[in-house]
Structure formats: structure tokens, C-alpha cells
Amino acid sequence: MFTYSSRHLQKKTSKVLFAGYKMPHPLEPRIEVKVQTTSTTTPASVTDETVSELLVAVSDIAGSFMVRRARFLPCFCG
Q: How far is it, in rounded angstroms, from Cα 60 to Cα 63?
């Protein structure tokens, strides 16, 4: 998900110069994110917008899944 979001940040607007992340260690529940923007916006505002868009996308995917699952499961219930 983070790979997608960092690519999405860069493609979304020309105001983002660099977006990336790293996990210091797989056993640590921590991710370090770096966003570099032009002087016309802040990394925090671009990140907030992108996270909001990703939440909407994930919510749409989850909704579609639930609808299709509900259609599919009755076939096996009787």
C-alpha cells in the first residue's frame, strides 16, 4: 500500500519532487516516510490529501467486495 501511495504522490501533482518510504527493520512496527515538495505547498498537506484519497479508494474496494461476497455466498448455503 505504501509503495502505491508514494508513486501516487509523485504522479498526482507536479508539486511533489520526491516521495518514498523505508522500513528500518521488518520486526519494528514503524515506517519512515519522506515527501519533498516545491515551495508552493507543504509535504504535510500533500500527504494528507493523498491519504484521504487512498482511504476513499480502499473503502470503495471493501464495499465492492462485500456486495460481491453477499451475492456469491448464498450459492453455498443450502
A: 5
